[in-house]
Amino acid sequence: MMEYKEYPRLIIFEMHVLPEYAFALDMLSDTDTFTGISEKCSEWFWRFSICVGMPKLSASTDVINNSIEALKVIQNPSDKMVNRIKQVFTNFAPNEIIESWQESLGIMVAIANNRKECQWVAPLYPIDKAFTQNPTDILEKMASNFELAVNKITKNKK
């Protein structure tokens, strides 16, 4: 899981900047803390934030189903959820984080309802290791990963 205390990481979802803590949605992969999250949804959110400098692609139905499931789980946060959020975000109120997640998930569902597939990315920052790499190499790797994602989704629809 990402170290969130250092700096917030923005995610651009279908050309929309998601609220500040969308990158922390991978916390939903912790099924011990976020009880009620299915293994499938947990895995999807764990992979959601693995998008720094590499666009991700997912079928809209997956975006919608996983986002709705997550919204149901975080709607009434348990003490365990709140305490875990307090541990990770020491300088922020848990309700701020949860509201950011709810807004992010709502945006994702609204956008996904109008598309067959959705793409998102977290831009590289100067402190990122890949930031100093040759831009051509980064773009080639991103194109390769994008192509793999498209092939996987296309293959699954056949």
Polypeptide structure, described:
This protein has 158 residues and is an alpha+beta fold. The chain is 49% helix and 8% strand. It contains 5 helices and 4 strands, in the order ββαβαααβα. The chain has helices spanning 39-48, 60-75, 79-88, 94-112, 135-157; strands at 12-13, 16-17, 56-59, 117-121. The protein has a 4-stranded antiparallel beta sheet with strand order 2-1-4-3. β1 and β2 form a beta hairpin. α1 (39-48) crosses α2 (60-75). The radius of gyration is 16 Å and the shape is globular. Residues 1-5 have low confidence and may be disordered.
Q: Please state the overall shape, judged from the principal axes of the Cα atoms.
A: globular
Structure annotation, total helices: 5
Report the order of strands and helices: EEHEHHHEH
Strand order of the largest sheet: 2-1-4-3
Q: What's the alpha carbon Rg, rounded to whole Å?
A: 16 Å
Largest sheet: 4 strands, antiparallel
Mean of pLDDT:
85
Write the layout of secondary structure elements.
Elements: E1 12-13, E2 16-17, H1 39-48, E3 56-59, H2 60-75, H3 79-88, H4 94-112, E4 117-121, H5 135-157
Antiparallel strand pairs: 1-2, 1-4, 3-4
Helix pairs in contact: 1-2, 2-4
